[in-house]
Specification:
This protein has twelve helices and ten strands. With 402 residues, the chain is of the alpha/beta class. It has a single domain, classed as Alpha/Beta hydrolase fold, catalytic domain (Rossmann fold, 3-Layer(aba) Sandwich), CATH 3.40.50.1820. The strands form two sheets. It has an eight-stranded mixed beta sheet with strand order 1-2-6-3-7-8-9-10, sandwiched between helices. It has a two-stranded parallel ribbon with strand order 4-5. Strand 1 and strand 2 form a beta hairpin. The longest helix is centred in the middle third of the chain and has 15 residues.
């Protein structure tokens, strides 16, 4: 199977259309964030009031954008929460179109008759706090009429879960039949199950660790520095530049770095080998290897749907992830989980290797597979949880039937 897109907007590959090419030749906007006045698409919005972060910073009012599928039953006991990865959003299912620059990132998993069968389940997916696809984040307008920009507070994984809890309260959902998250969304899912065990009946943690390690923080740090050293970043105050040109080069470079963590050496080597982008050898002629063009394409595409300040905000939130912080350590914290739990990893994942998933599974009392993580064999690396939908769906069905 050949795949052109990458983490959090993974869809089957197709030739680059002339419209795509024209879009990517045009100068990127200062921000790819969804802004008020843009088409809402399938989004709904929840105003959640004032919000205080873990470190005491105050936001006078926050909102979360979310999408939903299916219907909440009269008992209110068929709700499933899906939590997206770092640069994902609420558009889990649906086509690309007005308001949605990419198609749903889990179309094969969510829908009528799918693993998360929307004829049975009421499925909700919010865009995380600090994101840039409708939820309050740095590109949102502050009370003074200007973007929050560099003034947006530092938020943690626990802050983002606190905002999601307010959303659940507003929607009248007292207990989730399942909370499901992959990658950074798995961090949120773990926090839900530890902080609110009484509200989580089942839990699925996909390709996610119990703590963000020094190695992972180091990989993140160079991405953030790529954005900050772009001259057009302007310390985060780039929204009102007269030419409308933001730090797209730094953001695209950060994305290219990230993609190397999302895919495996096996896939990249087999897919691209040492092929040129054209029939002309690049040696001495300024040509390019196909893998370089691939990274460029997705880096440039990313700048059309994301915001540089938001990228910094959500990466720093990811760096805060440590379920054991203030709880006596990782193992003791995970003992608080009462949900029936599926822990799943990908054997070729070099971003969040499977030792993290094994550590989670060994520590949670009620795992689906007897304190073992399910490890899928895949050449796709970290992105396997988005791509190997038949196998992922099969295991999610097992969880929901348990």
């Amino acid at each position: 199977m050949d795949w052109q897109s990458t983490s959090e907007d993974t869809v089957p590959s197709a030739p680059v259309t002339e419209a795509d090419a024209r879009l990517l030749r045009a100068r990127p906007p200062a921000t790819g964030a969804w802004r008020d006045g843009d088409p809402a698409g399938d989004r709904e919005f929840a105003a959640l009031g004032a919000f205080r972060t873990e470190n005491g910073q105050q936001l006078p009012g926050i909102r979360l954008a979310y999408e939903s599928w299916g219907e909440l039953n009269s008992a209110g006991d068929n709700a499933i929460l899906i939590l997206h990865a770092l640069t994902g959003d609420s558009h889990v299912r649906g086509d690309a179109g007005p308001g949605h620059p990419t198609a749903g990132w889990w179309n094969d998993i969510v829908g009528p008759g799918a693993a998360l069968d929307t004829d049975r389940w009421f499925v909700i997916a919010p865009n995380m706090l600090g994101g840039c696809q409708g939820s309050t984040g740095p590109a949102s307008i502050a009370p003074d009429g200007y973007e929050w920009a560099s003034r947006f507070p530092y938020v943690t994984i626990r802050d983002q879960v606190a905002a999601q809890t307010l959303l659940a309260d507003q929607l009248g959902i007292e207990r989730w039949s399942a909370v499901i998250g992959g990658s950074m969304g798995g961090m949120h899912a773990l926090e839900w199950a530890i902080t609110h065990p009484e509200r989580v009946e089942r839990l699925a943690v996909l390709s996610s660790p119990p703590v963000n390690t020094a190695d992972q923080i180091a990989l993140n740090s160079v991405q953030l520095e790529a954005i900050r050293i772009d001259p057009r970043f302007q310390g985060g105050e780039y929204y009102d530049q007269e030419d409308g040109d933001g730090p797209h080069r730094g953001l695209a470079l950060a994305r290219r770095m990230a993609l190397l963590n999302y895919r495996s050496p096996i896939e990249l080597n087999q897919r691209f080998q040492r092929s040129w982008q054209s029939d002309v050898s690049p040696l001495g002629q300024g040509g390019r290897f196909a893998v370089e063009s691939y990274l460029d394409f997705h880096g440039n595409k990313f700048t059309r749907r994301f915001d540089a300040n938001s990228y910094i905000t959500v990466v720093e939130a990811m760096n805060s992830h440590d379920v054991g912080r203030g709880r006596g350590g990782v193992e003791e914290a995970l003992q608080a989980v009462t949900a029936k739990t599926l822990v799943l990893g990908i054997d070729s994942d070099r971003l969040f290797p499977v030792d993290g998933q094994h550590r989670i599974a060994r520590s949670i009392p009620n795992t689906l597979d007897g304190n073992d993580a399910v490890v899928l064999t895949s050449d796709f690396g970290h992105d396997g949880f988005l791509i190997e939908t038949d196998e992922v769906g099969r295991h999610l069905r097992r969880l929901l039937e348990s």
